[in-house]
Amino acid sequence: METIRRAVYHAILIGINSPDTEDERGLSGCVPDVLEITKKLEQCSIDGLHIQSLIASFQPDRREPIEPAQLWPTYDNIHSCLSKVVRETQAGDFVYIHFSGHSTLVPPRYPQSNRHTGDLALVVLDGPAADELRYFHSMQLAEYLKALVQQQVRVTIVLDCCYSGSTLRHEEVIRYLPYCPELDKKHLSTDGTAPLGPMTSEQSSLRGPRLPTLELNWLADPDGFAILTSSDATERAYGVKFGDGSRHGTLSYYLLEAFDEADGVGGNMIQLFQHVSAKIADSRRYHKSKKQNPMLIGNKEQLFFGLPKPSSLGNIAVTKVAVETYSMLRLHAGAAQGVAVGDLFAIYKFGRSISPTEATPVIAEASNVRGITSSLHVIEDTGGLSKNIDTGWLARAVTRHNLHQYPVKVGFSPEYRAEWQEALQSRPSMSWHDHNSEADTDYLRLEETDDGTMSVTDNQDRLIVKYDVTDASERDIQQFLSRIQHLASFMLVRDLVNHDTDIGTQQFKSSFTVTLSKEDDEVPFKSGCHKTSDVHDACAHPDCVIHLTPADTVKLKVENKAQKKEEKVFLYVFAMGSGWEITEMTRSSGVVVPAADTRDGFATPGTYQRGMRFPLENGQEECEEVVKIFLTRQPTSFTMLELPRLGEYNPVRVRAESGYRLSAWESEDWASVTFRVRITELKTGS
User: Is 477 inside any structural domain?
Assistant: First the structure.
């Protein structure tokens, strides 16, 4: 009888404090980060758990760490530890790497380097003394990540270091060391790159079953890992003394707090990210000069360290804000995400699994809808939970008023009419019209066909889906209506455009350019509507389609033209496929594009560039895709816009409605750019 191998869990926890100097205060919260994480892991009673901690603490009268030498986080010890894990892990195992300490940015040197920001390098020890340092380059970490993912090992990485976070709360100590070329030169190979392990580097692309592919600068398949950083690639980080007297990195502190709320380590990465991001954003709301925007890279649906925990039904973060004598709820989604005034949201506590059959959630209505946030007010609280709502709770959209802009004409035979009419009434987000009505427009039609099936066609009479209603149960009918709502939601996302004409919006739109062009063609394709020359418009004109073949490679280029160095653009790229799916292409919570600048000894160009290709499915001769790009001045989340292929499951999404600006918050500016692409198979001999 074949035995089933149990998964093995490997945790590599690295914390490097630094002593005080005459010029600055040292780090003292990095080792506590590791010790607390270790304690949390041990409390989980995980079978097959192996923890390797590499830590360094310093006392004023000693230059060497107080820990035994075998625990020092030296360059060699870290390599040895990672190599050992690569050798010992097998398919189905899990690896968790946590780094807390100093880091820096180094000039881009590799083909996969982030040329728009520079590359991260972790600052580790190179000997027994605190001032004997060496850079552990991110590309070296990526090589180990690639080796693990190729072995079908699931990897979770947390980086609580410089250029992945900063916050202000009580006392702070910077987690950044300026880049030192002399230090790096000691260990660079002759071509100017850091020595890599035996694994070879290769360019990796995101490849879906049929979606466009975006060339990513990772070595590993992003489905196999998740990386949580405490900030974006342009921000410094701080060790912080919190109100309870403890010193921790900001990300580590709120991650530990989240594990307390979830009753242990684990949980869905996107929900952890949404929760922790809201907590960090709230903590630095009145310290806008100290930016901190956590990022999530890779597989957003992956479990933290492979450990399941009760999860909320929500996917949008909520912040509780005190305003004079009362408090208000702020939803981390607005017009850019498709929120409309009057939309209803169910609000759930983070870390607690609640379904409608188990408990009644708090229901809140969107009132003031701004660019990327909205105000909520509670309208239903049967369970009495509203008084407990706090920052980091998660919301889920329940109704979506703007789906009414995509009406559906329906026609049934008398034997089905009563049954279907009752089902339609359970979908208040949709606008249903009788097929004999004189509605001005009809984007979709739901009609009974001659063979007894129900068909859905678009406003050009093209068949989208058919459904056999013979002996259909109530559940079957609801699933079919969910597909129709899915179609309307797709159209709404496709058409999302910021039509505001105020000065702030126009200035933001003029602060960047987005182009798509063939590799050897200097003339870029035009986005938006060619007839109106509005590059931000989304139209359906046949003349506004870009024609490509699967063999073509095009270049996406985003330029941040801001004159102020601190003005960044946050970029979100979505592929809207012919299977009615919407997928985020960079496999991250967003890409930051800083303005052109010279810092730390090297220049950032102010541009982001990636190659794209548009494949066809087997047997498919042509199809039309949409590349939808959102840009914001502040980080946000567009998770609620994503859709699977039609029929895989039944989410519903919403469209936007403009609201006013609220000066208490940071910039709510947003814009979108739409490229419609028709891909045609190149015929042999043509």
Answer: no
